[in-house]
Design brief:
single chain, alpha+beta, 7-stranded antiparallel sheet, 6 helices, globular
Amino acid sequence: MLNTYDKLRAQQMLGQQFVWGEWCKLGAIPKPPPEAHAAAGGGPLRPARVSPFTVLLYVIGLPAWILIGLYGLAESALALLVAVFRPKKSVNDVREFVSEGSQKDTALNEHGLTQVFDGDWQGMAGQFLLRYYTPSSHPTRLVILKPGAIVFMAPPKRVTLGKRKKMQVLAELPVDQAVVENPLNGTWQTQEFRIRFADQSWFTLTATSTPSDIDRCVSRVRRGGNPDNYPVVTPF
């Protein structure tokens, strides 16, 4: 879920009283045909590399992250042991949870949500990806859903600290050009979603936190309609 400060900053910059949004990451862009890349300006297809300062911060904080990881593993192992030695109902709950996770992974694959995009470099989605990192080398984008448009925001360069203060509007896609969709349609809570363009081309983004504000917006539209004209569609 998008934190309050990022949401307020986006609302202030966009002049909106309320928006839905989430920091999102894009998978590795496949290597495009050289002619398509050149025609789009030959811009970068990857975010900027991590700076030496960031590497130093990671090294300094590594022991703490290891302890946190070990604590998480120990907690998961303990929960599994408790479930195994509890009555049969608890064991069945664990099996059902594992089964649902497997079904969700299968559904993600079937609907193409594990793919970066539809593969057509001449489509609107492919053209957008060819220019994705040109206005900003930052690895994530704050994707904002406001009435009538999808807005992409980020600092112009990769930063470790202060991305909220340095944030800029990178692109705005009107609802007649692009919409957000989740082909799973609320069957499972997901971090993955698509940006689908008017020519039916698409690419996939993954929210960096869960529950995702984007997923909540899609669920809201699915249940109650879309009187505010958010750039969201649902399969049915």
